[in-house]
Write a structure and sequence with these properties.
By secondary structure, the chain is α/β, with parallel strands linked by helices. The chain has twelve helices and 19 strands. It has one domain: Metal-dependent hydrolases (TIM Barrel), CATH 3.20.20. Helix 6 packs parallel to helix 7. Bound molecules: (4S)-2,6-dioxohexahydropyrimidine-4-carboxylic acid and zinc ion (ZN).
Length: 430
Amino acid sequence: MTDLLITNARPYGGDPTDLLITDGVVTTIGTGRSAPDGVEVLDAGGAVLLPGFVDLHVHLREPGGEESETIETGSHAAALGGFTAVFAMPNTDPVADSDVVVEHVWRRGAEIGLVDVHPVGAVTVGLGGERLAELGTMANSRAAVRMFSDDGRCVNDPLIMRRALEYASALDAVVAQHAEDHRLTAGAQAHEGAVAARLGLTGWPATAEETIVARDCALAREARARLHVCHISTARTIEVLRAAKAQGVQVSAEVTPHHLLLTDGRLTGYDPVNKVNPPLRTADDTRAMREALAEGVIDVVATDHAPHAAQYKDTEWQAAKPGMLGLQTALSVLIETMVEPGLLDWYGVARVLSERPAEIGRLADQGRPIAEGEPATFALVDPDAVWTVRGANLASKAANTPYEGMRLPGAVVATVLRGRITARDGKVQA
Ligand code: DOR
Ligand code: ZN
C-alpha cells in the first residue's frame, strides 16, 4: 500500500524529483508518476530534501521540570525544527539513572510519536559524580540506552570516568562528557576574558574544558571506548580533538548553534537569556568552531535545547539558570553560519545534523541516505525563506531564545518520520 507521494523535492539541493513511499519506506524515486488513488500528496514546491535531523543533546525536563518543558512540547518543537530523533538528557527530577525513569521517558516519547525520543542515562547515581549508575540495566531496558552522560555536570573524577568508559565500551554505548573541570569554574558566570572582567563576572576559563577533553581522550584510548564531547566551545579544545583523532582515539564532538553564532559581546546588557553553560566565548572561538565543523574535526551540531520557565530566567544574572532554546532555530543558525558563507553544502548539513549523530547514537534507521529502500524520514527545507524569531511563537513551553527578534534564513517546510508527516508549514500534524 502506498502511503505518501512527495513531489518536486530536491534531495541534497539537487534536481527536483518525486518520492513514492510505502509503509514508511521509499519505494521509487523519479519524476512523472501520478499519485495512485487515495495517496496523500506532499508538494514540496522545490524544497531541499534532507534526512531527518538527529539531535544528540536536548533537555525535555520531564519528569520534574514540566513548568519549563514536557516530552510533548519538546517533541512539537523538535518536529517543527526538522528533527526526527532526539536524545533527552538525564538531568531531570528524578534523575534518569535507572531503568524505571529511562523507560518512562522512552514510553512517553513513543506515545506522542512525533519524534524518536532516546533517553540518555546518567553516568552516576543522581548525577552526584560519586557512584556509577547501573549502566547495564539501562542499556538492557526497553529504552535500550546507548548514550550515558551527567550533562549539566562534568564527570570530574577520573576513576569514575574511566570505569564509565569501560562499561560503556562493553555495551557498545558512548559516554557524552560535559567537559568542565568544576575546580576551575567554581562561581563562574561568564567566559573568562575581557568582557567578564569589565562586567565584574567571575570567569569560566577555557582551560576548564580543554583539560577535561585531553584527560578523557587519554582515558578513552586506554579503555578502547567511545567518547563524545558535548557542546565544545573553545578553539584550543579543537586542537586537542584534532590530535586525539589523528592518534585513532574514538572521540566525537558536538558544537551548538549558539556557539557557532553568538559571542560574549552580547553579555553587556546582563540579559540572562545569554547565560549558558559552557558560556558564549569570543569571535575567535566561533570562527574556529565553524572551520572545525566544516573540516569534520567537530562531528555534529547538537542544540543543547535547554528550556527554562520565566521564573528561572527573568531574574538577575547571577541567579538565572544557564541554557537556551535551540530546536526550532538550529537549522536557520546553521544556514546563517555555515551554508550561506559557503562552509557547508547540503550534503554537509546532512552529515552534521543527521548522519554522524545517528552513527554516534547507534540509530540504525535514522541518518540514512535518501535512496530507494531506505526509511522515509526527512526534513524538507526552504533555504530562501526568512523569518523573525519570536520566543512566544515557538512550541516550547519556555520562551528563552537568544535569537528574539532576529531575522534568520531558512525554514522547515515539513518533517516526515517513517512516511508520516509530523510537521508541515509550521504546524504539528497530530
Ligand atoms: O546551559 C546549560 N543548560 N548547560 C548545561 O550543561 C545544562 C543545561 C540545562 O540543563 O539547563
Ligand atoms: Zn552540558
